[in-house]
Amino acid sequence: MKTKLEQEEYFYGHKGCAGCGGSIAVRLALKVLGKNTLVVLPAGCMSAVGFVYPQLCFGVNALISPFASTGAMLSGLYVGAKALGLKDVNVVGFAGDGGTADIGLQALSGAIDRGDKIIYICYDNEAYMNTGVQKSSLTPYGAKTTTTPAGDRIHGGTYGRGSTSVKKDMFDIVTAHNIAYAATASIGNIPDYIRKVEKASKMQGTSYIHVAAPCPTGWGVESSDTVAIAKEAIDCGLWYLAEYEDGEYTLNRDVKEFTSVKEYLKKQNRFKHLTDEDIVAIGCQRDKKWKSLRKKAQ
Amino acid sequence: MSRRKVDKTFKISSIKDLPCGTYGKAMQLTETMEGWRNEAPIIDEKTCSLCNWCYLVCPEGVIYQEDKKMKIDYRFCKGCGICAKECRKKCIIMEREEK
Prior knowledge:
The structure holds 2 protein chains of 2 kinds. By secondary structure, chain A is α/β, with parallel strands linked by helices.
């Protein structure tokens, strides 16, 4: 690997569940960015597991922001660092999927509009895992959460099939702002993720990285399967690796032949209830998505 | 490489010990996590090729290379088993810990 990672651990001794995907994303990003980093964490898993007083697990300056204002606080930290004359400082925010796509979307939009040199990393575990698995707008179609339960007796079977809405496309929302750099990544492809964080740190404007980070607790997989299931999501086409820079889209991995969606879904407890029709519907959504992705990347 | 130090003697005995505001020292560790796990990873040094992949995939960051060996900081390992599953040489096994 070309990128030199720092030996030091900047996220250590945290209280995340065993096998936490989000903490892999945070830990590796901080190892790329190094000691001169200012971190903003809104309410979410990473702020909950990182700061349980007196156990404080960040080795860099880290602040907890109000839920809705990760983007605003990042801009504030950036101009604050500039006013103090601090050089070579990375300002990075780690927000979950709820803190990015639902609650913090407005502040993120404002931050991209201002175009400050900040990095916004969304670790996407596809529900509000910190509060006990509630649906967010990044929860995929069919996933069972506590607010979208599954079962024949729920609303006469009409709504008892998990999440009825499809995953919001944050990558498209962000690129529609004409952002300096945006990328999707996954902890199932770590070298690619590290390269993207490094690239983001060298950008002059705002960068956004959307990293898929499975949650063994909420997804209902073994704690040892976190990285493997993230990799499988890429292989079966339900997650994609793409980049956006200077108005150009790049598809980092154009999967020629997808592996079985059914196999991927049935490994997870949150999709156990899905019928064959549901799985066909998910396959159709995937094909539609990839058609538009390939068109854009041409 | 030195591992992070843990101050297990840290105690809040009165309100005066608490910080004056919602902040604290960076990387203040007062407890370890070995009680969280049932199984501990054991690395077979003979088959290990030092590819450092386990170091990258560990959510806790407890695996590290030192003196041409992969070492594990068992104080903070939660025994999730990602390293054993992801090891390409299959040289990490999870061993049940009896307490």
